Amino acid sequence: MELTLIYAIVGFGLAGISVISNDSVQVLGTFISSKSKWFSWYTLATSASLVMILTLTYGWIVNSGDISFGRLTRIPYQPIQWWHVLCPAVLLLLTRIGIPVSTTFLVLSTFASTVVLEKILVKSFVGYFLAAVVAYICWIGISKLINEKFDEITTQWKINAWRNGVWISSAYLWMAWLTHDISNIAVYLPRQLDLKLLIIVLVYFTILLFYIFYIHGGPIQKIILNKTGSRYARSATIINTIYAAILYYFKELNDLPMSTTFVFVGMLMGRELAIATVNKDYKFKYLFPIIGRDFLKMILGLSVSIGLVLFVHYVLIPNQIGL
């Protein structure tokens, strides 16, 4: 077995664990927090796995074997080297300590040219600020109609409607996320997969999803749980719907990958600021430590990513070529 193939297998395995552990929890976190009281973890994992299988199979069919939904058109396939394995390994370590790292930067950075990477970075920061502004405006309006700090719904049909809304909005958001971030794992694979390799990928992802639901999201889930009302079906539905709409907009904008982590953190920041603006009992002195901590974690993850990028592009690769 060639060494590059071994690197590809190890890199794909680590990237799958890292991306699913880090980014998918940001998408499925409200689903887990709002549904775990009513359903077993394996029921929730089964539903998420079915949506994943249908979404990736659909992408595989319509994109001639490409499960990345065209996100890798500017990043051609290249033989996997040992430094490509380094980044998902670091990502896995940061995920274990609860830092919401941008998997797009950390994983794709060693594959993409610096020009493409710069465009990815710009798109991600635009996504962060746009998500914050959109979320702030939306939740200013929402907060005038409902109080998300307390779940005050008492009518049974409304309770059932919001609970069903979580299922629908979570499926929509999960599909929207997959069209973006699956490229962070697929970058280790050939751009066109045959049926056998597709089945292997789907089985592996399903195993990872069941593990994530078994541990109830892991350390990253704490970012969801400390946000106002995120355990409530109503709040979870609203968060999912707005997040999915933003991701869909950027998917249609162009074929560049982007950091969904930036969008996620920006949206939660805008939401919390809006709730604090409208509700006088939710003081800013309690808010800023929460959003500040999330932002610092995001910047820390970005700093690590940029450091690795510079190390790989300007130290490892030139020395490897020199050999």
Describe this structure in words.
- The chain is built from twelve helices and no strands.
- With 323 residues, it is an all-alpha fold.
- The longest helix has 39 residues, at 284-322.
Record keyword descriptors for this entry.
single chain, 323 residues, mainly alpha
Structural domain count: 1
Mean pLDDT metric:
79
* Count of individual beta strands: 0
Q: Which consecutive residue ranges, at least 5 long each, have pLDDT under 50?
A: none
- Count of DSSP-assigned helices: 12
Q: Characterize the biggest β-sheet.
A: none
Shape: globular
Order of helices and strands: HHHHHHHHHHHH
Helical content stands at: over 70%
Secondary structure category? mainly alpha
Distance separating the two termini: 22 Å
Bin the strand percentage. Answer: under 5%
Rg: 20 Å
